[in-house]
Amino acid sequence: MKDYGAFLYNLRSSSGLSLDQLAPLAETSKSTLSRLETNAVSKPFKGATRKLVLALAQVLCTSSGDIETYLKLADIDQAYLTDKDKILLGFSPQVKPGSPNELANLERILYTYTEILAHLEAKENQIALQALHHFLN
């Protein structure tokens, strides 16, 4: 579906970000983003490209409707998202109280949140070090 690139472009434009500004936020290059916006990357998105597409959803989508439309246009079925992907996109996994695996599921989700928090803290430290390096030079 060709609408993915146009939707990605609209999300980026409405956020006020240029390709140069978005690239470091998504940990990719300007040229890769441009290729996604012009539908020069074939679907289905796999591996690193799929990871990038999901990271772009985290950065650019501001509502559950945006996320649902974005995933549909990217041909990514929500049923196949990992718990971590769901959490990062704002879809908290549900655990039914009293279910047979309730404790194990809650522990798995807690581990996932802890892993995400550790990643965010490492990223925060990296940004602080970059800012300090820039300040000192």
Give an account of the 3D structure.
The structure is a single chain. This protein is mostly helical. It folds into two domains: 1-79, lambda repressor-like DNA-binding domains (434 Repressor (Amino-terminal Domain), Orthogonal Bundle); 94-137. 68% of the residues lie in helices and 0% in strands. It contains seven helices and no strands. It has helices at 3-15, 19-25, 30-37, 47-60, 64-73, 83-88, 102-136. The longest helix has 35 residues, at 102-136.
The CATH superfamily title of the largest domain: lambda repressor-like DNA-binding domains
SS content category: mainly alpha
- Write down the domain tally: 2
Q: What is the annotated CATH architecture of the largest domain?
A: Orthogonal Bundle
N-to-C span? 47 Å
Low-confidence stretches: none
Provide the succession of SSEs. HHHHHHH
Q: What gyration radius follows from the Cα positions, in whole Å?
A: 17 Å
CATH class of the largest domain: Mainly Alpha
Estimate the mean pLDDT confidence.
91
The main β sheet shows up as: none
Count, helices: 7
What level of helicity do the residues show? 55-70%
- Number of E-type strands: 0
How much of the sequence lies in strands comes to under 5%
CATH topology of the largest domain: 434 Repressor (Amino-terminal Domain)
Shape: flat
